[in-house]
Amino acid sequence: MKVTVSHQDGMKFEAKTEKSSFIIDAPVISPVEYFLAGIITCSATDMILIPKNQGKSVMNLIIEGDVVRNENQPRKFNTLHLTYSFNSDADDVMAARWVMASLETYCSTINTIRDTTAIAYSIIHNGNTIRQNEKMISGGGTKIDMGEIEACPS
Hints:
Layout: E1 4-9, E2 12-16, E3 21-25, H1 31-53, E4 58-69, E5 77-88, H2 92-106, H3 108-113, E6 118-125, E7 128-140
Parallel strand pairs: 5-6
Antiparallel strand pairs: 1-2, 2-3, 4-5, 6-7
């Protein structure tokens, strides 16, 4: 993958990919907001494609991302909470598996930040909250507390 960004005027930049181009208007939308939108869109595409490959469909998908950034420079993401709200023709267990598959396996952007960002998620499926503030299994951020671990007997 290759992207080239060129300055246009003021704080506007053109991003060219191998397939297309688009304008980044930094005063209107910050690069960090574009970054977060890209993270969310990556997971959103999974949430359409995974069910489709299983003969199911997702409707009315909305994913909201809420980030807390470090106060000091560099202002990296400290925590990310994603709320998935959608309807589908699947049961709640399958719907939760789609979200977890996106978060843990398929979404490259989330997997890029999960070692430095504590990630949690909530799921509202067919109008019912089926997961609330669940932490990603492997997305502990920089301070991972594994608890006490006893050594295996030899």
